[in-house]
């Protein structure tokens, strides 16, 4: 087992991975309220003993990531395909009814033309502009592996996306590929879970850094003997027919860093595969896989990771918690929330949790994907005062359900929620999510809360947001 984390460069254009150290400093200009640092050492454990999170108040919630900065890559001779970008609002939707749809599939032949999901949305505000970033996974009919891309927006509604790999720190499109190292945990798919902007109080520097926590999949297949009432897949795929075989691949949590949100360098964790940590022992609830590692900064030296797995003993999906002082080395604390009561929308478990701290009352809010007895998916909420184990589900019903329209783009499943708390007099919330139609097409949608209370959401229908 490795004794310390290692930084490995990421290049989405090379055919083979060359392991090298990230020895140049990462620098750019960010608002003065941010604490920032350089990465000049291959042992992040020594560099980042205590982390400081940039303020989440509306005026300094995020950063302008458009300034010039060095590109992290492991080859200067690679050729990047020509980039073409389209506004998803200008592209004709592939659904008859597109209420709530804000990001559609890519055009035929592009990297995200077959399936998209796992939206991670961040709102960046500066003195003169408002910018939105959305990291999401996509795959194509020609490939099959999930890759990570970036879309940008000025209002969180109309998104600009790219058809190929990014070429500069102003491009949009494909930003991260699977690892090419045979021993790595993420050789056959990657999906984003959270992006946190953090820095160290121990190092002088001129840049804050994006930390991307993601799920990495490999070819190892997982089997279990307990009969399940719900189809279990990992990664989850849209099934064309009920007889299609279900694959459960091993997945583990990973970490990558970037100065611009586009060019990423992997941080190798203590697990021999480069992952941050391993699955649980055979008798533990998370022995099959680790998925969707969503990380929340609680205080200096205290980060929480919420992730899900399938508990084979009880036949339910559940969400567990791990804690860390530096964002790299984690200690598991066990399962914190599981399936609901009989006939509830989450009877067979919860997954794809997204946690955010409510700036109004300080409580932690968890949006999650609930699985009903018939296999349908809806989105529910839970709250906690400290973000640890005392989670209370909000009511008995879902806050967002699939569309009831026959031609609705999301009339089969809704899930993979991502909450964004807005500022202003209404102090409302936005909920981004993945939707699946009855024909198996996927898209990313938007719903907005009815005021500051987040007990119900309505799907976006116009610019009155």
Secondary structure elements and pairings:
Blueprint (H helix, E strand, L loop, with lengths): L5 E4 L34 H4 L3 E3 L31 E3 L13 E3 L11 E11 L4 E10 L7 E7 L5 E4 L10 E4 L13 E11 L8 E13 L27 E10 L6 E4 L22 E9 L2 E10 L4 E9 L5 E8 L12 E8 L6 E8 L5 E8 L7 E2 L19 E9 L7 E8 L5 E8 L7 E3 L6
Task: Describe the protein in words.
The protein has 465 residues and is mostly beta strands. The chain has a single domain (6-67, 83-459), classed as Glycosyl hydrolase domain, family 43 (Tachylectin-2, Chain A, 5 Propeller). 1% of the residues lie in helices and 38% in strands. A six-stranded antiparallel beta sheet has the order 1-13-12-11-10-2, with no helix packed on it. This is Glycosyl hydrolase family 32 N-terminal domain-containing protein. It comes from Aquilegia coerulea (Rocky mountain columbine).
SS summary, helix count: 1
Oligomeric category: single chain
- Taking Cα atoms only, what radius of gyration do you get, to the nearest Å? 20 Å
Low-confidence stretches: 1-5, 9-93, 200-206
What can be said about the biggest beta sheet?
Answer: 6 strands, antiparallel
Number of strands: 25
Cα end-to-end separation: 50 Å
Structural class: mainly beta
Q: What is the CATH class designation? A: Mainly Beta
Question: Overall mean pLDDT score?
Answer: 78
Give the overall silhouette: globular
Considering DSSP H and I runs of 4 or more, what fraction of the residues is helical?
Answer: under 10%
Strands of the widest sheet, in order across it, are: 1-13-12-11-10-2
SSE string, helices as H and strands as E = EHEEEEEEEEEEEEEEEEEEEEEEEE
Please indicate the count of domains. 1
CATH homologous superfamily title: Glycosyl hydrolase domain, family 43
The CATH topology label is Tachylectin-2, Chain A
Tell me the strand percentage band.
35-45%
- What would CATH call the architecture? 5 Propeller
Protein name: Glycosyl hydrolase family 32 N-terminal domain-containing protein
């Amino acid at each position: 087992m490795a004794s310390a984390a290692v930084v490995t460069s990421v290049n989405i254009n090379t055919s083979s991975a060359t392991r090298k150290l990230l020895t140049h400093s990462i620098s750019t200009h960010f608002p003065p309220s941010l604490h920032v640092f350089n990465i000049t050492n291959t042992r992040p454990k020594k560099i980042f003993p205590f982390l400081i999170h940039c303020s989440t108040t509306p005026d300094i919630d995020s950063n302008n990531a458009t300034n010039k900065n060095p590109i992290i890559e492991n080859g200067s001779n690679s050729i990047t395909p020509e980039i073409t970008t389209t506004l998803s609002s200008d592209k004709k939707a592939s659904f008859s009814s597109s209420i709530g749809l804000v990001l559609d599939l890519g055009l035929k032949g592009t990297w995200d033309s077959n399936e998209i999901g796992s939206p991670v949305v961040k709102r960046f505000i500066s003195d003169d502009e408002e910018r939105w970033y959305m990291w999401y996974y996509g795959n194509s009919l020609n490939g099959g592996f999930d890759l990570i891309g970036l879309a940008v927006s000025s209002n969180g509604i109309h998104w600009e996306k790219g058809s190929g790999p990014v070429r500069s720190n102003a491009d949009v499109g494909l930003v991260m590929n699977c690892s090419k190292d045979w021993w790595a945990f993420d050789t056959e798919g990657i999906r984003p879970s959270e992006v946190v902007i953090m820095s160290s109080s121990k190092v002088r520097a001129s840049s804050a850094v994006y930390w991307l926590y993601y799920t990495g999949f490999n070819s190892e297949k997982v089997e279990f003997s307990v009969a399940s009432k719900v189809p279990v897949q990992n990664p989850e795929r849209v099934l064309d027919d009920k007889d299609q075989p279900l694959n459960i691949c091993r997945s583990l949590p990973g970490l990558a860093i970037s100065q611009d949100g586009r060019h990423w360098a992997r941080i190798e964790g203590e697990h021999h595969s480069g992952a941050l940590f391993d699955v649980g022992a055979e008798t533990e609830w998370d022995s099959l896989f680790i998925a969707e590692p969503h990380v929340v900064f609680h205080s200096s030296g205290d980060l929480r990771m919420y992730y899900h797995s399938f508990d084979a003993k009880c036949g339910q999906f559940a969400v567990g918690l791990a804690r860390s002082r530096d964002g790299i080395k984690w200690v598991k604390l066990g399962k914190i929330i599981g399936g609901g009561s009989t006939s509830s929308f989450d009877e067979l478990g919860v997954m794809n949790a997204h946690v955010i701290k409510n700036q109004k009352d300080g409580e932690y809010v968890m949006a999650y994907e609930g699985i009903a007895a018939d296999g349908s998916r809806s989105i529910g909420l839970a709250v906690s005062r400290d973000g640890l184990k005392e989670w209370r589900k909000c009511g008995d019903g879902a806050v967002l359900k699939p569309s009831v329209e026959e031609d609705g783009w999301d009339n089969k499943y809704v899930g993979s929620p991502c909450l964004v708390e807005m500022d202003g007099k209404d102090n409302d919330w936005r909920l981004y999510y993945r939707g699946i139609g009855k024909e198996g097409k996927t898209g990313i949608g938007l719903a907005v809360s009815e005021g500051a209370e987040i007990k119900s959401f309505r799907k976006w229908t116009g610019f009155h947001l």
